[in-house]
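Dear colleague,

Thank you for sharing your sequence with our group. We've completed the structure prediction you requested, and as agreed, I am returning the results in plain text so they can be pasted directly into your records. Please verify that the sequence below matches your submission; if there's any discrepancy, let me know and we will rerun it promptly.
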Amino acid sequence: MKTFLICIAVVLGTALIVWHATEPPGYYILRGHVFGEPSPELMAANIGDVISTQVITIAPEIPGQDEIIQLPGTDKVLVSARDEWVWMVDLVTGKAEQFAHAPLSPTGAKLVPGEPTQVYFCMARLDWNQYPGKTPGLYRLDLNTREFTEVITRVPLTGNMREDGLELPNFRNPQEVMVYPQPYRETELAALDASNSRPLQFCNDLDVTPDGKHIYITEPYSNPKASSGLGAVLEAVTLARNGRVWRFATDSGKVGLSVENIVFADGILLELDKNGRETGLLISETTNFQIGRAHLRGDRAGGYEVLWQDLPGLPDGLDRDAEGRVWVGLIKDRTPVVTWLHANPWLKPLVLRLPADKLPVARGTGIMVLNADATEVIAYSHHDGSRVVDISVAAPAGDKLFLPSFYKGNQGLHYLDINAVLSRVGQAALQ
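Please find the predicted structure tokens below.
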């Protein structure tokens, strides 16, 4: 009996030591939420799995990627890849080349308005990779020199900075997204220093006004080890409201806070009035399984509206086609296990102690298409991951719909004929 009790004590003591030794950093703030079923409107727009039968793959040498943009007037696209290269692909010949080596992992990208040889790229840390001397942020690529130049790598202090490096957001209500039509604490880049600013920890996506004067960038979360890929898994578990959207005014050189107290701000799209002025921001709250709108102008300025919630997958990148439709990549399925975990947050301290690369992940992925104001679902397609895994965005380019795969083991560039999706609109899929 004495031996048995000693063994029990040893086991419990070991468990206690392991529990404390694996305690995650305090900047992972836990939150619970009960997710419901996807909306009937979304499921009624299900067109079935078009990817499994219609996808085309070229340039198998290209690894996982986050973004694809077409160079205007050409048959060439730029690809933000996981290998820290921006690739260029000729869609006529299928030839791919490593075009420009990035300082970190390139993520979202947008053409610089009026400057056909210039492209903005967000840069972030990836997984647990180390980037000595390199800083996440917004960069500019010159297509002639193939060189990157820093644009923004620091942002103003706007909340309460803790000793562990996590900046707590401001809020009126803990569950309320804060929107600033006129950016909060807007400060000239040249005036930012260690006393009034911090590093931009994670630049994920961006959009630019047609005149190029305002750039909006998303920072999904801002702890000192923020990164995409495996590095974001723990933050995804928390559902913490650590996301922010920043606005940079290129004419004044000032950067300020536009949105805060939001869950994992990821994809972003500008909404404009007939005069080209920004009226709102569409934002995907990836780990919150929802898409919302931040109102910047009009009677609802300063408010935030949830457009789609309880989505069947993690909404990642957002893009528009020439007709104004909004295309969404659903990078991973919302599995029953994930739904159950968020409804039972008492288990999260245990999950946060497990190696992120050992946690079960879904292979299912998908896309959805919304109308121009994102209030109606045009089509939804789920894919089982047999042909493409981890679709980060659905990127229309002419008659093609590119499906960037962020999967670490991905090979190649994937696309559909865009009509393979649009031609099935209105045809409910048989399940």
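Summary note from our side: Residues 2-21 form the longest helix (20 residues).

Kind regards,
the structure core
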